[in-house]
Design goal:
homodimer; alpha/beta; 6-stranded mixed beta sheet; 7 helices
Chain lengths: ~425, ~425
Amino acid sequence: MITVERAKRVVLENSSGLTQGAESLPLTSSLGRIVSKDIKSPCAIPHFSNSAMDGYALRHRDTKGASLERQKVFNVIESVPAGSVPKKKVGRNEAIRIMTGAPMPLGADAVVIVEQTREAKSERRKAKSEEFMRTFKELKRWENVRRAGEDIRKGEVVLRKGTLIRSQELMMLAALGMSSLKVTRRPRVAILATGDELIEVKSKLAPGKIRNSNSYGLYGSVLSAGGEPIILGIARDNSASLLRAFKDALRRKIDILLVVGGISVGDYDIVKDLLKQIGTKMLFWKVAMRPGKPLAFGMIGKVLVFGLPGNPVSSTMAFEQFVRPALQKMLGYIGPAHFVREAYFEENFEKRKGFRYFVRVKLRNEDGKFFARLSGPQGSAMLKSMAHCDGVMVLPEGIAKVSRGDKVNVQLLN
Amino acid sequence: MITVERAKRVVLENSSGLTQGAESLPLTSSLGRIVSKDIKSPCAIPHFSNSAMDGYALRHRDTKGASLERQKVFNVIESVPAGSVPKKKVGRNEAIRIMTGAPMPLGADAVVIVEQTREAKSERRKAKSEEFMRTFKELKRWENVRRAGEDIRKGEVVLRKGTLIRSQELMMLAALGMSSLKVTRRPRVAILATGDELIEVKSKLAPGKIRNSNSYGLYGSVLSAGGEPIILGIARDNSASLLRAFKDALRRKIDILLVVGGISVGDYDIVKDLLKQIGTKMLFWKVAMRPGKPLAFGMIGKVLVFGLPGNPVSSTMAFEQFVRPALQKMLGYIGPAHFVREAYFEENFEKRKGFRYFVRVKLRNEDGKFFARLSGPQGSAMLKSMAHCDGVMVLPEGIAKVSRGDKVNVQLLN
């Protein structure tokens, strides 16, 4: 039996990135995927200096000393809508009317916003057809101007390899004109349930039979972790059925094989022996955790093989602590596996020393502080307390209990 | 100009649940969707009392007084594999070998785990063909037994309307034999970018033109909020183009229309007038927030219409504060719009009183404490600091600055 930390290290040492299998995707399909290599900007953003506001482009020095009492008057020589380009150059005491985003005219180095200007009659009584404006605002150089390249320089690395594509990343990539991008391949994860007691979800219950719930829970977990789940159905507790299923799994070019059930100590637990028989190098088969202790891990060639416990809560916990981190490493994602929330425990709970416990809890927020309670009975077959939990409270090996008011760490699930 | 809170109230008062449009989905497709009505369990879980461990089913009273020194001997009368049903009844000092999950035999009310037993020769020297085991363990009634219905009772509400389907919910629903379930319809959200300055992502940059990044950012945001995004492309800054686009949008049976750009004060901002012209009841058009101030909201019939600012950061902030909550209400999801993290700010930042600020920050975790720094310059057109942020620090209306060491709340993005 090895510790959770040691087991995790063994799993991660044997998980290697799938970056070579990167695929090119259209921008909108890349949401939630992982960037497979550093992305450099093909252009500067902004591409040209432009106005940050609706207003008038002018020379900042012409506003020097402006105030409510001493307003400055400008000759408006042109009006540039968004999407158009100014044709004239701004000279002394001249201004060009400009919309947010419109390119700065030559000669101008600041924009006065429209709310700080008034229409004006010329005090110098030039031709009546001309337009004038006055302002009380003294401007700084480049005030209300977005200068070319101030956000992103051409050639700059804008997204590092390993970055998760969220909507914000999509937005920036669209602005850079990247209509497609390279993301890491999704690891293929085969899910094989085993057991003579299992029936399909659609089947009627019969004495001694239970429905295969593990395959569906793991399907969701694999998907949420960025993998591509492949449900292989149910293998029976005999060598022929299991061997057939293992071979079927390995033919499908998988990266990970999850075998659920059949790894305890009992007579009918032949899975581990058969895995060895087909060439699996077993690396560990018991972890000091609860639930999830009967957890086997090995490799067939480059394929990671997890023998997960048959109890659905145990299989989920084993997935969260070992398979999810392995998937993230394969995806090249450099981020935490779980969001961890600090909370105050509101009950008393005893545990066995030497084991790391994962306890299902519900969280309650009171004025920004979080409080955790058990989401129900903690038996490793208890589905309801699993479905009703916000996350799992992680209790370290060294302690024998947690008491009301103790600070605990809760790994959020989804 | 109204406050963020007041604006949110107006939006939510006008967002109604789409539960009537519920759809039935196969179990695996329901991941990430919202349950549209309370789900009652069609059966008990466990469906039959069964063993929680590999071991021997027996009568607990026959182990009374057992200890290492005074071990109790049992006649093993049957062996039941998982998936099978015991045929015999357990009598005094009898035991049936049983696997985890196998049904409890009649007569038995406890299970001793296999590790706490040894093979035994009969001390009573019965027939040699018989099998015996001995144990040092004194058992309690129902020890190591999962009793029928102890997890879920038949008819019990297992998932409330409004629950998000995660992998744990999938698992429980599979165990209940629910191969399909009813979830709320995804709200249809049309995204219309406006502006003569906009070009498509694939187009070459030209003077005065920028690429349409808002549609892609909003596409991702709508998807991540549970909506169905419909990108309508770009409308130009003239009545004909805009009216055509609005009518096109409304023909598509949408629930929300997002019009991006064209709602500022300038001459070319005709969107708001046209929206009124086609029958939009405008409810507000400026919110005391930064970025995101020029935000219009109204209704055309039952369709929510948001006029979002054209700056990509502003449109994202407006989406997060108003559109995401509206989508969640439509979906019937009762959960927070954002995950909020408390952090210590590591810089100094000045703001204008009277406005709620949303400031892009990066978070750093040090021994469980979180520290926030600006993710870059905060201009509302700055895409890089948006892509590089972990979330937005929310600064309330009443304050004029935050200083190094101040505790702040950060809304995480994705």
